[in-house]
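Sharing a chain and its predicted structure for anyone who wants a worked example. Both blocks are below, sequence first, tokens second.
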Amino acid sequence: MIGCDGKWAIHPSQIEIGNEVFAPDPEVAERAKRIVDAYAEAMDEGKGAVSVDGQMVDEATNKMAQDIVETAEAAGIL
């Protein structure tokens, strides 16, 4: 869902569906984790960018991946 990353829940019965809708897909979460890990390693090596699955990863891409990883961890996916 583009542009949305959460939902207000006014009743406990809404929590489960909100979590299902806004949690990242497990495959997306795993790829994001690979990106974060690879970028951290690249930074340790003094590189500004790295290739993951054939795509360039820079700081902006890493930040988006970090957000996905944080959401996935909160949802219990990672």
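Comments welcome. The helical segments are 15-22, 26-44, 59-74.
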